[in-house]
Amino acid sequence: MTPERLRTLCLSFDAAVEEFPFNPETSVFKVQGKMFALTALDARPLKVNLKCDPDDALRLRAAHPDVIVPGWHMNKRHWNTVTADGTLPDRLITELVEDSYDLVVAGLPRAARLRLDRP
After folding, report:
1. pTM higher than 0.85 for the full model?
2. What stretches pass through the bilayer (predicted)?
3. Among positive and negative, which fits the CA dihedral 33, 46, 24, 72?
4. Which CATH code fits 3-109?
5. Residue 89, burial from CB neighbour count under 10 angstroms (0-12, 13-18, 19+)
6. Which stretches within 12-89 are classed as H helix?
7. CB of 86 within 8 A of CB of 44?
8. Phi, psi (5° rounding) for residue 96?
9. How confident is the model at residue 102, as a pLDDT?
């Protein structure tokens, strides 16, 4: 997963935006004002914080302890930091980003969810 592909993926979701509330180097991807991904796209290795179901978070950390860890500076129960250094398949990273977006959308008010192009 390249930084460009990660950015394109994050922005491909309905109503997704990129903001820089912390500094010019840290991209925060949001939907309806709620964050679903946080990354420094120029960092090496590339890492991204993603929201995750707590049970799935534990399972993923156990299965990939070197590249999926509790979310750095985030709620450790609900966020993972995923290292995109080539160890994980791009398909898995894509699924994790999609899951993060979907979890955030699921937490939005019903009216906001209905305006989005997601089930």
Report:
1. yes
2. none
3. positive
4. 3.90.1150.30
5. exposed
6. 54-63
7. no
8. -65, -40
9. 95
- How far is C-alpha 82 from the geometric centre of its chain's CA atoms? 9
| Residue 63: both structure tokens together | 């299965």
Distance CA 53, CA 8 (A): 23
Q: Mean pLDDT in each 10-residue stretch from start to end of the chain (119 residues)?
A: 96 97 96 96 95 96 96 89 95 98 94 77
- Candidates 82, 80, 79, 78; CA nearest to 90 is 82
Q: What is the pLDDT of residue 118?
A: 54
Tell the residue number behind the tokens 């390249």, with chain if given. 2
Identify the CA nearest to 48 among candidates 13, 86, 16, 96: 96
52: tokens are 């995750």
Cα gap 61→91, rounded to integer Å: 17
Amino acid letter, residue 6: L
Asked if residue 52 lies in contact with residue 78, where contact means CB atoms within 8 angstroms, the answer is: yes
Residue 61 backbone zone (phi > 0: left; psi -120 to 50: alpha; other: beta): alpha
Distance CA 82, CA 84 (A): 6
Q: How many CA atoms lie within 13 A of 26 on its CB side?
A: 9
